[in-house]
What does this fold into?
Amino acid sequence: MIQRLILILLFVSSFPSLAQEQDKDLLRIKERLDTVSAFTADLKLDVDISFINMPQKKATVEFKKGEPMAFSSEDFALIPKRGLDFSFQELFEYPFITVDRGMETVGGNKLKVVNIIPTDKKADFSIATLYLDLKAEQIAISEISTKKDGTYTLLLDYPTSESVLPSKVEVQFEMERIRIPLNFMGKDIDVDRKKMRREEIKTGKIFLTLDYKTISY
It folds into this structure.
């Protein structure tokens, strides 16, 4: 009886340490992302929002490790900025645990699905789901549920299987949760405000095409 009690206590005491283990495949991909210390790129941006007609915009993006990704443009502000951070720094800024959700086939590709759950209240998100291309060691899809700005999804397309950074990114987001100030999107946009008020669920997509000028490792 005493031996059985000791075994139960050992199992219970070891469980928290098991729960804290982080997915090794995710950490390997994180290490690849960490090799990029800085980059600059020219950016083309298109939007797919039912009640907004906006021509293609151009901007520049600058990234330095440890700092927020910076976007600049002559005639508009890039929104939502939260969804445009494809460096994924925010996911790994604070301690986290992971949950392996197994393999899933998306678009003919087998991807590993991993949940990231932050263990520090300072984190801006509550849970993230990443779809990992294990062969290329790339993040193919991310779904991030934030505490204040709703949920946004990133679909990433890479120029080659060896690339660390994507050349195309599709961002899907909830418009109401990010409270887009339409006047910041430029003077040449056409907003159908009646249609905007009619739609109960307002969602949008942003398409980014990146032309990297410098990448520092």
Q: What stands out?
A: Confidence is low (pLDDT under 50) at residues 1-19. The chain has one domain: 21-216. The CA atoms of residues 140 and 156 lie 5 Å apart. The longest strand covers residues 203-216.
